[in-house]
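Comment thread on ticket #2218

A.B. wrote:
> Attaching the input chain for the structure job we discussed in standup.
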Amino acid sequence: MALFLVQHGKALPPEIDPERGLSDEGIAEVERIASTTKNYGVRVSAIKHSGKKRAQQTADIFTSSLNPENGIEQRAGLNPLDDVVPLARTLDVRDNVMLVGHLPFMERLTSYLITGNPDHPVFKFQNGGIVCLDQDPNTQVWVIKWTLMPRIE
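C.D. wrote:
> Ran it. Output below, let me know if you need it in another format.
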């Protein structure tokens, strides 16, 4: 089982789309990553997103590829500046959930789960990329199991 953290795909600038929906490049990158995860046999039980347009569109693309049994839903607590601790306390690796959100939240959540401190960066996200976390069954310590990013930078 695992926890999948996804930063939304590249968004349009606010002067083009005030709601900041995905750009054509963002859509293409998320579709490629979602297809790759499907080809690798990644299974998620549910996909939860922040409700912002770019996160919902990203979640919709992953839902189309991965077809989670419990569907897709908006979840509070995934906005860019939300406190990661309340959400982290609700996570259970056995749920096999994908969370789609924003920076700096996703990087801070990953840091908090790995180190216990959201201010100690452990991973640099990319738009449309996935970080898969798991817990060691003996120690319950969170670890980065794998990542999949649109680009090697």
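A.B. wrote:
> Thanks. Noting for the ticket: The longest strand covers residues 142-148.
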